[in-house]
Design brief:
Layout: H1 8-22, H2 26-33, H3 49-53, H4 58-82, H5 85-100, H6 113-123, H7 125-142, H8 145-163, H9 169-182, H10 184-192
Helix pairs in contact: 1-4, 1-5, 2-4, 4-5, 4-6, 5-6, 5-9, 6-7, 7-8, 8-9
Length: 201
C-alpha cells in the first residue's frame, strides 16, 4: 500500500474521475464510427478489442486496444500528477471497474484486459511490459486471447514482487481477482475446450 497522503475528499474525487474515464466504451465508439455495427450483436457481444476483431477489421480492433489501454493509463497518470500515488492506485482500480461496469451501458461492459495492461504500464512500466509480454507469449502458444489475459493477470502479482517495492501488491491482487471473475465463463469454456481462438467468430 502507498502512503495515504491525499485527503478523503481527494481520494473520492479521483475514484469518481477514474471510474468515468474507464467507463468510456471505446469499442462501441470505434465500431460505430467505422460502420461495423453494434458490438452487442457480434460474436460474444463484448465491447473489447477481441470482439471488435471478430468484425474482421484489424484496424478497428487495434484502435480499441490502444484507446482502452490509454484511458486506464491516463487515469493513473493524471491522479498521480495532480494528487499522489495513493490517488493513482484508487483511480486505477475504479478505471478498471468503469470499463467492466460502465454506467452508460447499464453496467454491462467489457472484461478489462486492455485497460488492465494500460493501468500497469502507467503504475509501473516494468510490470506493464512484463504483463504485455506474458499475454503475448500465452496468446501465441495457445491462440486464445482470454487465456493470455488470465496468464498475464496471474503473472502480474509475481512481476510486482520481483520488479517493484511491493506498494502495488494489494491493488495487483484486487485487479487479478477481478480479471478472473470477469473471465469465469471463459474459464469454463477453456476447460471444456470450446473457447474460440483469436480471430474466430
Amino acid at each position: 500500500m502507498p502512503l495515504l497522503d491525499s485527503t478523503t475528499t481527494q481520494l473520492i474525487l479521483w475514484a469518481a474521475i477514474g471510474y468515468l474515464m474507464g467507463s468510456v466504451p471505446f469499442g462501441m465508439i470505434v465500431a460505430k464510427i467505422m460502420g461495423l455495427g453494434n458490438l452487442r450483436n457480434i460474436g460474444s457481444g463484448n465491447i473489447g478489442a477481441t470482439n471488435v476483431l471478430r468484425t474482421g477489421n484489424k484496424g478497428a480492433a487495434a484502435l480499441t486496444l490502444v484507446f482502452d489501454a490509454a484511458k486506464g493509463a491516463a487515469a493513473v497518470l493524471l491522479a498521480r500528477a495532480l494528487a499522489g500515488e495513493d490517488a493513482a492506485q484508487i483511480a486505477a482500480l475504479t478505471a478498471f471497474l468503469g470499463h467492466c461496469f460502465p454506467v452508460w451501458l447499464g453496467f454491462k461492459g467489457g472484461k478489462g484486459v486492455a485497460t488492465f495492461l494500460g493501468l500497469w504500464l502507467a503504475l509501473d512500466w516494468r510490470v506493464g511490459v512484463a504483463c504485455c509480454l506474458s499475454w503475448l507469449v500465452a496468446a501465441a502458444i495457445w491462440r486464445i486471447s482470454s487465456l493470455g489475459a488470465l496468464v498475464a493477470a496471474a503473472m502480474s502479482t509475481i512481476w510486482v514482487l520481483l520488479l517493484t517495492d511491493g506498494s502495488t501488491f494489494f491493488l495487483g491482487i484486487a485487479l487479478t481477482l477481478l480479471v478472473y471473475w470477469r473471465h469465469s465463463a471463459n474459464l469454463a469454456r477453456i476447460r471444456a475446450g470450446t473457447e474460440p481462438k483469436i480471430g474466430q467468430s
